[in-house]
Amino acid sequence: MRMRDEFGAPERKFHRPETGLVLSEGSVIEGYASIFGRADNGGDVVARGAYAASLEAMRAQGRRAKMLWQHDPAEVIGVWDEVHEDETGLWVRGHILPEIGRGREAAALIAAKALDGLSIGYRTVRAERDAKGRRLLTEIELWEVSLVTFPMLPEARVAAKGEDRDGLDWQDIADLFEDARRSLSGG
Description:
The protein is α+β, with helices and mostly antiparallel strands. It has helices at residues 52-61, 101-111, 170-185; strands at residues 10-15, 22-24, 28-35, 45-46, 66-69, 72-85, 89-96, 117-129, 135-148.
């Protein structure tokens, strides 16, 4: 889902973390907000390193990506304490503010496994088309990471407490399902 047009305006990518969003200590959450090399439901793929310049600029300016509820800038519900790229994608860890009504609601929904999606709000700085015609995002200006109901990237999820994000290889399982889907659809 895009917020504006292709001329440098903000966009959103919904991602359901494959390991699930973790809620621990009452309000601490973590998970992958974006996974490199995976096509989302809009056909976009984020390249490894796409967030590096943005994350460095934020650090240099003492800023952080915002934690929002459903991409609503009027609904800040917490703070992302750690946002970094690793081999898999964009990893986030933060805490929901229980002093805020929507924060309490979000924590309750995550704990009940009724909500587990993550989504990024960003501006595309550089992109190119890959061999399949998909947009490959090579540089992204990250603005926010939201807790959402329906992520654009199905694997972007909050991780469950105690799950080992390096244990079960969810990416391989997702690839098997994607291969089966393509086989059944003839593509």
